[in-house]
Amino acid sequence: MDLRSIKLFGGRLRKYKSPSTAPAQPRDSRVSTADVARVVIDKILAKKQHEVTVLTRQPVLGPTVDEHGVRWLQVDYSDKPSLAKILRGIDVVLCFFLDLDYVSVVRNSKNLIDASIQAGVKRFAPSEWGSRVNRSLPHNAFKDEIREYLEDTNSGRMRLEYTIFQPGLFVNYFGYPHASPKHFPMSQPFVDLEHRRAIMVEDGNASITLTTVQDMGAVVAEALDYEGVWPVDGGMRGTQVTVAEMVEMSRRLRGCMKVETVSLDDLRAGQLKTSWRPDISHPTVPKELKDTISERMFLFFLNSVAHGCWNVSDTWNKLLPHYHFTTAEEYLSSIWAGKP
Q1: For 28-67, what is each residue's pLDDT tens digit?
Q2: Are 21 and 123 members of one domain?
Q3: Which residues 6+ apart lie within 8 Å of 292 measured at CB?
Q4: Residue 177 maps to which CATH number?
Q5: Which region holds residue 319: left if phi is over 0, alpha if psi is between -120 and 50, else beta?
Q6: Which residues, by range, are in coiled-coil regions (predicted)?
Q7: At what angle do helices 102-119 and 141-153 cross, to 10 degrees?
Q8: What angle separates helix 80-87 from helix 102-119, to the nearest 10 degrees?
Q9: What sign does the CA torsion over 43, 85, 74, 139 have?
Q10: pLDDT reported for residue 3
Q11: Under 8 Å CB-to-CB from 111, ≥6 apart: which residues?
Q12: Contact, 102 vs 142, CB < 8 A?
């Protein structure tokens, strides 16, 4: 399939320095630079087959084309006709919205889908990039509404080909505090290899999928040139393990792990009786609310793990058999080898 253009949309965007070189014989791509999207940008640019354009709500300061050949455009997501005009001639749209305002992110996502159809966009990826099921995580609730909207949009006939990219949990988080790639945001995980401790629900038999963010970005870049129809279920697997197996892997790497357990009854009651819990570090979380939000979000997260929300399919593994995924143990060994 001849892809001329890809656009990625995000929330807070900023210009950044990338190790990637600009495409030699580019086709058009449009991208955001919010965390995960930055990894995707690098992987797309590395293939040297697509131009990249960042669409942002913020004013574009400086040149509209940076040193990597990435174009920057300011857009108004509430202006559907304007979006459709910008999207004309574009083959693929990739979306990276954050739920800072549920109503706005749903409206903007739906406008983007409608404008993509009006403009003749061939492929679309909604703002997912994580779990198989979102209902246990309130801040991800908008994703389910957009899934339903896409399904309804294609009811009867396909109007917009789309896939829901689902890597599960990024294994990079378990390298905390050692960031890789360097611009990837890190926060303390529930299996904390730095301090040799972990929290798990009951016996830890819930399965999770662990994928490096680099592999996810590479799969997205490969998917742009995939000649078949994109699958709606866009799961990919670096490693599939139970939480208990993840803890055992951590013991092999770090020597010992102190494990605390949480009961399902306590989760249902909204009670966390452990001696510690991860802190959420995110620019959208006010400092004065950090402790309250961290505990609440961690309870939601543990509940999502216990109910298998992070156990995703291997759909893209099967569609891209030539691609080699880094296993969780390979990645974590490279991070923790030789560290005290």
Answers
A1: 443 433 688 889 989 999 999 988 888 888 888 877 888 8
A2: yes
A3: none
A4: 3.90.25
A5: alpha
A6: none
A7: 30
A8: 50
A9: negative
A10: 39
A11: 77, 78, 80, 83
A12: yes
Residue type (1 letter), 19:
P
Q: 88 and 177: one domain? A: no
Collapsing DSSP to helix, strand or coil, 137 comes out as coil
- Whether 1 shows a pLDDT value over 90: the answer reads no
Residues 20 and 151 in one domain: yes
> What CATH number does the domain containing 92 carry?
3.40.50.720
CA distance 174 to 188: 8
In this predicted structure, the answer to whether residue 136 has a pLDDT above a threshold of 80 is no
Q: What is the largest CA-CA distance in the chain?
A: 59
For residue 157, CA distances in Å to 88, 118, 126, 148, 227 come to 21, 15, 19, 15, 20
How many domains is the chain built from?
2
Range of the domain at 204: 169-210+240-312+324-336
Report the mean per-residue pLDDT for the chain.
88
Instruction: Give the tokens for residue 257.
Output: 């792990």
What is the pTM (predicted TM-score) of this model?
0.89
Q: For the purposes of burial, counting CB atoms within 10 Å of the CB of 338, is it exposed (0-12), middle (13-18) or buried (19 or more)?
A: exposed
DSSP 49-106: S--EEEEESS---S-SB-TTS-EEEE--TT-HHHHHHHHTT--EEEEE---SSHHHHH
Please give the order of strands across the beta sheet that includes 207-211.
Answer: 169-170, 207-211, 239-242
Q: Give the list of residues 6+ apart from residue 136 with CB closer than 8 angstroms, or none.
A: 300, 303, 304, 307, 309
Q: Which tens digits make up the pLDDT trace of 254-294?
A: 999 999 999 999 999 999 999 999 987 666 678 898 899 89
Residue 76 placed within a domain: yes
How far apart are the C-alpha atoms of 187 and 241, rounded to whole Å?
A: 21
3-state secondary structure of 306: helix
Q: In 3-state terms, what secondary structure has residue 192? A: strand
Q: Which alpha helices (H) appear in 255-323, and where do they start and end? A: 264-269, 290-306, 315-319
